[in-house]
Amino acid sequence: MSPDPLKPTSLETPHRAGPPPGAELGRFVGDPDFMASFARGLSVIRAFSGGTGRRTLGALARTTGLSRAAVRRCLYTLQCLGYVGSDAAGHYVLRPRILALGYAFLSSSTLVAAARPVLDQVGSLLRESCSIATLDGDSIVYVARSSSSRRLMSIDLGVGSRLPAYCTSMGRVLLAGLDDLDLDLYLQRVIAVAHTEKTVTRADELRQLLLRARSEGFAIVDQELEIGLRSIAVPVRDATGRVVAALNVSTHASRVGAAELRSRCLPPLVVAAHELSMLVAT
């Protein structure tokens, strides 16, 4: 039986773990300046992430937690504006025009513009996939990748892809960059799912790993997200010393051991992160 195109894969599930996209709207009830209709539209757009991108009205309502009537109005508006299309079977898809929304961030971000040549340089030097990501809620979001990046996971990662922070090397250094209060709040609310037998899911163990990443200035994650995937990441800081992004190298575990990641890949990553930090600060 072929897989349901509307059902998220095991690796997509963490992106949607916890409250649905529309649930956060309740926090702003009574705020006269909050545009609830606009927020509902953004929730519907976010609900298209993962899978094939084809969604039914019912699937979008379930994913967002919004009523079918509200989702229908959002889809109608987005379709009128050219951001959403539909077919005769009642499936909705995002249209290419939606890329303009993401491009607005990519073209205006100093970090993204500075990262591309640096990622290519590191990727070429190490002959490994190199990426940079930022923290968005409890997930990491890929904002740039080296041109030499190869597909190492069962799902293809590109700019805009999201992964859970707790079991990724970039997520670990980004979480380590949080202050103690924000880190405590994260560990209290995160629902850690075991993707492999190596995934660390206990809050106390995660805390120790994050504190270690904070003190050592890097994090190695060994097959916790997917068997065969091993990676190392370092933080990128702004002029104030705040961690604003993470830079990583990902490899096949059968080809590169954890010790080699530290000895061969860490030094160029540290140099590249320092270079990016200087570029972002200017």
Short description:
The chain has helices spanning 36-46, 57-64, 68-80, 99-108, 110-126, 169-176, 180-189, 203-216, 258-281, and strands at 55-56, 84-86, 91-94, 129-136, 139-145, 162-164, 219-222, 229-237, 243-252.
**What name does the CATH topology of the largest domain carry?**
Beta-Lactamase
Oligomer: single chain
Detail the poorly predicted runs: 1-18
Largest sheet: 6 strands, antiparallel
Q: Would you kindly provide a written description of the structure presented here, covering whatever features stand out?
A:
This protein is of the alpha+beta class. The chain folds into two domains: 13-99, Orthogonal Bundle (Arc Repressor Mutant, subunit A); 109-281, GAF domain (Beta-Lactamase). Helix content is 41%, strand content 18%. The chain is built from nine helices and nine strands. The strands form two sheets. A six-stranded antiparallel sheet has the order 6-5-4-9-8-7, with helices on both faces. The chain has a three-stranded antiparallel sheet with strand order 1-3-2. α1 (36-46) crosses α3 (68-80) and α5 (110-126) runs antiparallel to α9. The longest helix has 24 residues, at 258-281. It is globular, with a radius of gyration of 20 Å.
